Amino acid sequence: MENNGKSVPYLRQVKDIEQATILKARESWSMFSIMAEFVESTERLASLHPAVTIFGSARIHPDNQHYIKCMNVARRLSDAGFAVISGGGPGIMAAANRGAFEGKSPSVGLNIILPHEQQPNHWQNIAINYRHFFARKVAFVKYADAFVLFPGGFGTMDELSEVLTLMQTDKSRRIPLILVGSEFWTGLLTWFQAQMVSTGMLAQSDIELMQIIDDPAQVVQAILDFYEARDIAPSEAERQKMLYL
Questions:
Q1: pLDDT tens digits along 93-144
Q2: Which DSSP string do the residues of 102-147 spell out, in sequence order?
Q3: CA-derived radius of gyration, the chain
Q4: For 23-47, what is the mean pLDDT?
Q5: Which strand (E) or helix (H) includes residue 54?
Q6: Contacting residues for 215 by C-beta, under 8 A, at least 6 apart
Q7: Among residues 72, 101, 85, which one has the least CA distance to residue 45?
Q8: SS3 of 244, please?
Q9: H or E element that contains 177
């Protein structure tokens, strides 16, 4: 590839050798830290099956209707045999872990170390700590057999976009993606339809990757219905695909 005559120095060409060495060492150790997070995820989650990942706001309080409904959904999923995976923090994450903790299946928290807001909740049978968002995101997707999203902010929108992009581009398998809270989500899907589908930026089939369901029993039933037509375990082709998330 042409560099258009621009001077693009390589690290080995930096004149301050000591500084360059420090920089290389720091970056190398960072790679080991990242690898360690992926290894721990695999060690502790690879045999966790089936499982549902639940996303939602960290800022929702226990008396909020979404918190209460999330606990209900998570408890039903847990009693139906699904491990429940959340981000391990407060709000919807705590509701998901709490509901699952009271049920029959494991409650899993993928905790992220942040300067503020995120504190691990107390309802985790399996707790993993991450420094890197992307390693945590891979675990959310790789070990899930369905996704359930409650109302949330930028983090929840980021997780929704990540999951949709992976499924749309066939980088991950297509599994149930359920949005709970029609009053919160309907406007977003209407905007997708009006601004993205109508202009050709999305296909109608992309919108159909999502479904809005408000009733906790119907959320669980929708996941069970999806797997009536196929094995809940990933096929060998899907397993290979998930190696390249």
A1: 999 999 999 999 999 999 998 776 568 999 999 999 999 999 999 999 999 9
A2: TSSS-EEEEEE--SSS----S--SEEEEES-HHHHHHHHHHT-SEE
A3: 20
A4: 88
A5: strand 51-55
A6: none
A7: 85
A8: coil
A9: strand 177-179
Residues 204, 197: Cα–Cα separation, whole Å: 6
Instruction: Map residue 188 onto helix, strand or coil.
Output: helix
Q: Per the structure block, which two tokens stand in for 226?
A: 């999806």
Q: What token pair was written down for 198? A: 């109508």
- Number of other CB atoms surrounding residue 101 within 10 Å: 22
Task: Give the number of residues written for the chain.
Answer: 245
d(CA 94, CA 88): 6
Quick one: 218 exposed, middle or buried, by C-beta within 10 A (0-12, 13-18, 19+)? Answer: middle
Tell the residue number behind the tokens 């360059």, with chain if given: 20
Residue 136 CB contacts under 8 Å (≥ 6 apart), including other chains: 37, 87, 110, 112, 130
pLDDT in tens, 53-65: 999 999 999 999 9
pTM (predicted TM-score)? 0.90
Cis peptide before 50 (omega within 30 of 0): yes
User: 129 forms bridges with which residues in the sheet?
Assistant: 111
pLDDT tens string 137-171: 999 999 999 999 999 999 999 999 999 999 999 99
Within 10 Å of residue 50's Cβ, how many Cβ atoms?
18
pLDDT score recorded for residue 129 = 94
Domains recognised in the chain with CATH numbers: 13-242 (3.40.50.450)
